[in-house]
Amino acid sequence: MPVQNVESSMATKTIRRSISMTPEMHDLLAQIAARQGRDVNQNDLIREAIRHYLDAQADIIGSRRHFQKSLQARIDTLEHALTFQTTIIICLLAEILADDTAIDEAIIAARRDGPSLLARIAAVRDLKPDA
Q1: Burial class (CB within 10 angstroms; exposed 0-12, middle 13-18, buried 19+) of 87
Q2: How does pLDDT run across 51-76, given as a tens digit for each residue?
Q3: How far apart are CA 121 and CA 83, in angstroms?
Q4: Using an 8 Å Cβ cutoff, are 79 and 118 in contact?
Q5: pLDDT per residue over 79-97, tens digit each?
Q6: From the CA atom positions of the chain, what is the Rg in Å?
Q7: How far apart are the first and last CA of the chain?
Q8: Cα separation, 48 vs 33, whole angstroms
Q9: Whole-prediction pTM value?
């Protein structure tokens, strides 16, 4: 069964658009097209530029990958804050029975022990369950 050329089937359904450009842009485009040879014209170059631009925008704005990266960054920030606050609560509970300076000591302990606790959380999160 022959493979259908997607681009040639899409070429039959085109939408025409008009664009305006400065004379300098037009001259530069003509020079680039002339250097490409007879197989490439100015319209081809414009379509290629638009394709590159649209591909870049899809990666930046609407892509699942961009969403996942930004969501993961927010989760990491929240996890760090939650870990710090939880460490303070744990230290407060341990210290509150013994000393009036428990809040200061809890904050110091949270700063001191927070990074190692985050590392332990990350190590456990990265473990994959046996299948």
Answers
A1: buried
A2: 888 877 766 666 677 677 788 889 99
A3: 9
A4: yes
A5: 999 999 888 888 778 777 6
A6: 29
A7: 39
A8: 12
A9: 0.39
